[in-house]
Amino acid sequence: ETGVTQTPRHLVMGMTNKKSLKCEQHLGHNAMYWYKQSAKKPLELMFVYSLEERVENNSVPSRFSPECPNSSHLFLHLHTLQPEDSALYLCASSQDLGTRKSYEQYFGPGTRLTVT
Amino acid sequence: EDQVTQSPEALRLQEGESSSLNCSYTVSGLRGLFWYRQDPGKGPEFLFTLYSAGEEKEKERLKATLTKKESFLHITAPKPEDSATYLCAVQAYGGATNKLIFGTGTLLAVQP
Questions:
Q1: Cα separation of B38 and B87, whole Å?
Q2: B25: phi then psi, degrees, rounded to nearest 5
Q3: Minimal CA–CA distance to A84: which of A21, A43, A39?
Q4: A78-91 per-position pLDDT tens digit
């Protein structure tokens, strides 16, 4: 595997279900991100991890719970979601959060989530 | 508030018809401006990073330029395979994280 991978690619869940999204990066990066992409809206940053420590939580509802066990893996645990949470969830990774240099982020293919 | 606006929302070109996409930004201090390409059902694919006004970068038929207020993505003699949504994003100084602020994108369709 190369780049950033995400599983599953598609997920349909009911509002009472619990599921998890998985992301793995094979680029040697040490920062990872979760984004939400809804139709006609800009990508919204949800969570940022650097060196496995959460450094930003962008006011995301508690029904979304991230986990970063190591610098290569990132999870997004989902529970009691709402239909408006249906969207494409994208994982990304980058080099360390430098204070001077700006590093590009590399994205996975995303998980298309539908909440019924 | 940091903000990115892309125009037009959609653009239809004939194959070989050159054009430009615009990304206007308002940011407290620009660390970097990024261009991505996104195909339907896929994640964004990194194209370019620009750091300072006057900088230019090229890749095949694409050329990105940067001023203090906006960036342009010039597409020269496009082909149908250039059809995609092009996203612009900025990163500002002052934050503790590598936060990217995205525009809503320009949907480009190139017809043969």
A1: 7
A2: -135, 150
A3: A39
A4: 999 999 999 999 99
Tokens linked to A90? 């994208």
Rg for chain A (alpha carbons), in Å?
14
CB-CB contact of A42 with A36 (8 Å): no
Chain B residue numbers with beta carbons less than 8 Å from the beta carbon of A106 are: 46
DSSP state string for B50-76:
E-STT-EEEETTEEEEE-SSEEEEEE-
CA distances from B81 to A106, B43, B59, B76 (A): 21, 17, 14, 13
Q: Are B21 and B75 in contact (CB under 8 A)?
A: yes
Measure the CA dihedral B11/B51/A100/A57, to 10°.
-10
Q: Which of chain B's residues have a Cβ under 8 Å away from the Cβ of A97? A: 96-98
pLDDT at A97 over 70: no
Confidence of residue A99 (pLDDT cuts 50, 70, 90): low
